[in-house]
Amino acid sequence: MVDVYLNGLYFGEVQNGEAFAKQVREERRKGVLSQNVNVYYNHEMNQVLIESDKGRVRRPLIIVRDGMALLTDKHIKQLQKNEITWTDMIKQGVIELLDAAEEENMLVAFDEKELTPEHTHLEITPLTMLGLVTALVPYGNYTQGARLSIGAKNQKQSIGFYAANFPVRMDMDVNLLHYPQSPIVRTIAHDLSEFDKHPAGQNVIVAIMSYKGYNIEDAIILNKGSLDRGLGRSTYFRPVIVEELRYSGGLMDKVSIPDKEVKGYKSEKDYRLLENDGVVFVEAKVKEEDVVIGKVSPPRFLSSLEEYSLASNIKRESSVSLKHGEEGIIDFVLISENEEGNKTVQVRIRDQRIPEIGDKFVSRHGQKGVVGLIVPEQDMPFTASGIIPDIIFSPHSIPSRMTVSHLLESIGAKVGAISGRYVDATIFDCEPEEKIRKELLELGFAENGTETMYDGLTGRRMQARIFVGNMYYLKLKHMVANKIHSRARGPIQLLTRQPTEGRAKEGGLRLGEMEKDTFVAHGSALLLKERFDSDKTVVPVCEECGVIAIYDAFKEKSTCPTCGETAEINDVEMSYAFKLILDEFKSLGVYPRLKLVNKY
C-alpha cells in the first residue's frame, strides 16, 4: 500500500501510487479537480504527495501526448485573433501549471525537435525558466549560472532613466543617467519589457588588455575624453522634508528663520541661504552644516517653561541642515499641507556625479569592476582605424568567471554598430556565433574580434592583437562619493562614550579582533594603544571594598559610598564601557569588586 498525504498531513492509502497520481492529473485536466492541485509520486519513499496550499511557485508547460504537443497551430491562430485566452488554454487541458515536486515525475522537452514518446511536457519557450531581469542578459546560455544571477542583480542596481516624471517627484536617494542608450545586442525581453522607455546603460567601446597594471583584479580604466563628452554622467537626488507638528497645549513648530534669542541658535553664516519664509532658495549651492529649512519648536519639556505661563517665548532651534559629507544644489522647493492640515516643506537637492576613481561599472554578465585609473585621451591606446576605447577591461576577469557571453556580446555589438542593426541575443535562441563572425569578416574586420593597436604614449605598434568591440556598460549606484568616510575626533554616544556609528553621524570606524591582530603582527604597539582608547576614562576606585567611588568636583575629593570619606581612594584608567558593565552588574544585585595592585 502507498501512503497519501494532503498538504503534509496523512490522508489515507492507495494500492497503486503511480496510477493514482495519473488519475488525479487526468481529473485535473478535465476540470473535475481544481487547477491549483499538484500531485507527486515519490518512488523512493513510496508516497503520494498532494499539494493545494498557497505560496508555491508553479510554472506553465505545454502537455505532450504520445510524443505530440497538444498546442497546435489552430490554438496559436486563435490566440493571435484574441478568440481564446490563456485561461481557456488551461481549461482545455493544453497547458498546465506544475510545481517543483510534480515536475520531478515529468520529462520536459526543450523544444519540439527533441520530443519523444517518453516526454510528458514541452517548454513554451526556454526563456520562461528565467525571471524578467535575467532574460535581459544577452547570450545567457553561454555563461555560468552563478554569473547569470549576478548579471541580473547588477542590472537592478544600475543607474538609468527611472521615470519620465522625475522633475516633479520627491523620491528618496535616486540617480538619473544623463545620456541613457538602448543596447545594440538585445533579447526579446527588451522588447517585451519596453526597455527603450527606461534604458539603464550606455554603449561603449571596450578593449580587453592590461594597462600599466591599473586594471588589475577587476578594476577598469576609463578614457578621460569619454568622460568629458558625458560618459557615465548622472545626477543624484535627495529630498529633505519638514512638517510643522502640533504639540499638547496648543503649541506648534514654525518654519522660519530663527531669532537670536532662540535656544540653540547657530550662526548667521549657517542661515545665510534662507529666504524670508525660512526656506532655502532654488539653485543655491549648499554644503554640510548649511541650513536648508529653518524651524523653531516649543521646548521639549513643559517644565522648562516659566511657571504659570504656557505662552512663554522660550523656543528651541530645530532647523534641518545638511549632514556630514553632503553637498549639492537646491533643485526644487515644494510647500504644501499634509493630511492633518499642517504645513509641509519639501526641498530636493541634486548633485552632479561625474565618474571618478572608485565608482562601480558593470557589463550585463556580472563582470563588475571599479574605476582604477582615468587616462587622458592622448595617452589611450588606439586601433589602426583610429578608434580609441572608452573602457579598458582586464583579460584576467574572463577565464575563472567563464563568461563567454561577455566576449560574444563584444563581437555582436561590433557587427551591430558597423552594419547599423540590432543583434538578437535571446537566450537559447540567439544569432549563432558563426554567422556573426562571417558578417564581421565581410565588413572588413578580423573574424575573431581582434585588432592591431598602437600605444598612445610611444606610438609603437603592440605585439599582441587586442580583442576590441562594443559593449553595453552600466554605471551602478554604488559611488565613492556616497561611501567615502573618515574621522579624527568627533561626536560620541551619551551612554557608552564611544564614537557614534555610521557615516551620516560622522561616526568612527570600528576595529575588530582581526584588525587588532594585523597591528600586533606589524609590531605597532602605540598605534594599537591609540586605536583602542576611544572611550578611555579615569575612575576613582576604593582600595578597601573595590567599588567605584564618587568624585565631588566642588570639594575636589572622592568619597566611597560604602566605606565613607576615610577610605583610601585611587584613580584608575579604564574603558568607559567596562565601568558601564560594572554598573549593570550592580543593578542585578551582583557586587563587582576591583582588586587593585601596584602598577610597578
Description:
This protein is of the alpha+beta class. It has 5 domains: 2-129, no CATH class; 140-165 and 177-233 and 357-475, Dna-directed Rna Polymerase Ii 140kd Polypeptide, Chain: B, Domain 6 (Beta Barrel); 236-353, RNA polymerase II, Rpb2 subunit, wall domain (OB fold (Dihydrolipoamide Acetyltransferase, E2P)), CATH 2.40.50.150; 485-531, RNA polymerase alpha subunit dimerisation domain (DCoH-like, Alpha-Beta Complex), CATH 3.90.1800; 536-587, DCoH-like, CATH 3.90.1800.10. Helices cover 19% and strands 26% of the residues. The strands form 10 sheets. Strands 12-26-13-24-23-30 form a 6-stranded mixed β-barrel. Strands 5, 6, 7, 8 and 9 form a 5-stranded mixed β-sheet that branches. Strand 1 and strand 2 (9-14) form a beta hairpin. Helix 8 (404-419) crosses helix 9 (433-442). The protein is extended. It starts with a strand and ends in a 13-residue tail after the last helix.
Gist?
The chain has 13 helices and 34 strands. With 600 residues, it is of the alpha+beta class. The longest helix is centred in the C-terminal third of the chain and has 16 residues.
Helix vs. strand class: alpha+beta
Strand order of the largest sheet: 12-26-13-24-23-30
β-sheet strand percentage: 25-35%
Poorly predicted runs are none
CA gyration radius, whole angstroms? 35 Å
Query: What assembly state would you assign to the polypeptide chains in this entry?
Result: single chain
What brief labels describe this structure?
OB fold (Dihydrolipoamide Acetyltransferase, E2P), 13 helices, five-stranded mixed sheet, alpha+beta, Dna-directed Rna Polymerase Ii 140kd Polypeptide, Chain: B, Domain 6, 19% helix
